[in-house]
Specification:
Blueprint lengths: L5 H12 L8 H9 L4 E4 L6 H11 L3 E5 L3 H13 L4 E4 L5 H12 L5 E4 L8 H11 L1 E6 L21 H5 L5 E5 L4 H10 L6 E4 L7 E7 L3 H11 L4 E5 L3 H13 L4 E4 L5 H12 L5 E4 L12 E6 L6 H8 L9 E7 L1 H11 L5 H19 L4 H8 L12 H4 L2 E5 L1 H13 L6 H8 L25 H13 L4 E2 L7 E2 L2 H7 L6 E5 L15 H18 L3 H4 L2 H10 L4 H4 L7 H21 L11 H11 L5 H10 L4 H8 L3 H9 L15 H14 L6 H7 L5 H14 L7
Parallel strand pairs: 1-6, 1-7, 2-4, 2-5, 3-4, 5-6, 8-13, 9-11, 9-12, 10-11, 12-13
Antiparallel strand pairs: 14-17, 15-16
Helix pairs in contact: 2-3, 13-14, 17-18, 17-20, 18-19, 21-23, 21-25, 25-32, 27-29, 28-29, 29-32, 30-31, 30-32
The chain binds adenosine-5'-diphosphate and zinc ion.
Zinc ion binds next to α15 and α16.
Length: 727
Amino acid sequence: MISFTQEKLLKALKHFFGYDEFKHSQQVVIESVLSGRDTMAIMPTGGGKSICFQLPALLLDGLTLVVSPLIALMKDQVDALVANGIDAAFLNSSQTPDEQRRIFREAELGKIKLLYVAPERIPKDSEAFFEFMLKLNPSLFAIDEAHCISSWGHDFRPEYLKLAAFKTNFPHIPVIALTASADKITQNDIVARLALVNPNIFISSFNRPNIYYYVQPKRDAFGKIVNYINKHKDNSGIVYALSRVSTENIARKLNEAGIKAAFYHAGMDSASRSRVQDAFLRDEYKVIVATIAFGMGIDKSNVRFVIHHDLSKNIEGYYQETGRAGRDGLRSDALLFYSIADVMKLRNFAIVDDNPEQTAISMNKLHKMQNYCEHEGCRRQYLMNYFGENFPGYCGSCDYCLTSLEERDATVDAQKLLSAVVRTGERHTATYIINFIRGSDSEKINPAHKELRTYGIGKDLKREEWQWIVQQLVVNDLIVKSADPYNILSLNERSWKLLKGETQFRIIMKKERMPDESSDDGGTDVGLMNKLKDLRLAIAKQENVPAYVILGDNTLEELAVYLPLTFEDLKQISGFGEFKIGKYGSYFITVLKKYVEENNLTTRMADKEPKKVKREKTIKSDKSSTQEQSYTMYKRGMSIAEIAAEREIAPSTVEGHLAAYIPTGEIDIVDFIPFLKLERIITAIKSTGQLTASKPVKDILGDDYSYGEIRMALEYYRAKGDITEFK
Ligand code: ADP
Ligand code: ZN
């Protein structure tokens, strides 16, 4: 059907969303949709599914209908699209019938590119459905959270079943189904139930490289959590706990410890629940203590940590919960506290009465979860293998791989172990010896052995540490482990030398560690980051949207690292599309300029990867934004009147365009407004007590001052402050 070159797709991605490259399989998925094929995209949470239908929606002629099950999520996505200057709207039961009718009418008139609907808004009977759709003139159907159509999935919703009518009524319109469900049965079921025709199926890796995994023994878990959160005061995070009561208790204790935290669980009424969710999205609460009921539909991109106070009952759940961290691709921590007591507790829950099969499945999944916690190796590798992916051993971003090792003299420990082996007759396994040396009161230990002097002399080390010592002794040929299946330990000549103190034994041991010790902030300036966050929050409050809808954390970080000072610079910052540059660019440049001046810094844009600069050039050669066109003409020496005439727009519009270049210093305001006039305008601005609207200023000044002049003066005043510094 329609074909788009890679260059065009990248240009559109940059233009609408401000991103420089596609993530995961986004590009192939988008190409498949644009070629008219039914498509299924399977990506982990945070993988970037939305772009897979949003970008085609913008490139195709008609309307894209998006089915999404979660009202909160829907509103968020629409807010984010509108913040990028895209015509999007939603229809769901939270709106009045009048509102719904208005939006439907706008969609009918072709004024909406993306329409999100809740499945219950879609008519049930086929004829009404057909009419509903026909009026909208759709060119693409997108079905988010597509696993909801399958009873095999973890969140079956019967109203999804009517979505099969898409293909039966409109066989020629492509459908894209999106899910994070990794499970094969569910995937096949989605294809069958949606009646997809010969679909392209794309499965992305489930690896989330920016999430760091840690497992800690559950000793003083609460103290460790407080410590962790205090070290990451500016970050948002979720603490998961098993029961409703414990979420309330932990939240209360956190508040007592001076950490503002709210709790969330399914026992609360829905109004309280959405209040907590909203407060979290808007950063009013940075920490939520919740049962696993929290998170479905929380599309907050800058969750920096997920802590499991209690064990999860399976890897699927654990992975989904940890996956809520770091959707923006920045480093995030997943920390779990593990205890055998939790395993016991969960075993009771795993028992399904009169259903031994289901019980066995749940027990097995719990067992795998336990293995993960006790795993002596790369955690990421374990997780990837669990999901059927190969992963090489060393990830460098889990507690195992990050553990700093310490070398120490273990001669005495080795002597204790060897002498235990000798005393018990060189007839026992490593497990027996370790239990014996640690003074286990198990009945499996021979009562006579319990009388020996070596019984219990190794209590000071943990079981794992003894296992490690045995393994290292074997590797170094300092002890013999029989090759038969019994693994009996005995001594050799070298062991005796060691036992007599004629040789030494050094060993490399693991140190226990918490997340963060290895963290690196890449040199981001915290003071500047806070200024940028404050500005973002102020804009977000004014527009009544969550802060990350304005700009993501990673975009702020790029600003703080590269210090862009002009609109041209901003174009190279990931997350700043044309629309956002026009709307918010000058505010951010103002803050950055001020900061750079105060601290004697210069821009670091030259350090940005050259590849992006190159791509930038190809974009620049194309037709640029309307603001830029006026600016280019002005730079060529044309007057405002000339530009207005040439472009067939009002002179005040041109003035508005050029005003945007004042805070950056690319245009000097004295070229436009005589000093005395400027002084009067600024006096008027000050008397209005606000810094954005030009109407109140115009009301004071009257006809001798144009809106364009006032807008320029506003930009100037916001950027430079009072006029006295200007002579
Ligand atoms: P999912 O729906 O798969 O959980 P989202 O569509 O919400 O994921 O995307 C997750 C995050 O990644 C969002 O913050 C989004 O803005 C960001 N993102 C998506 N695509 C890109 C891209 N190509 N480059 C950079 N960031 C992206
Ligand atoms: Zn690892």
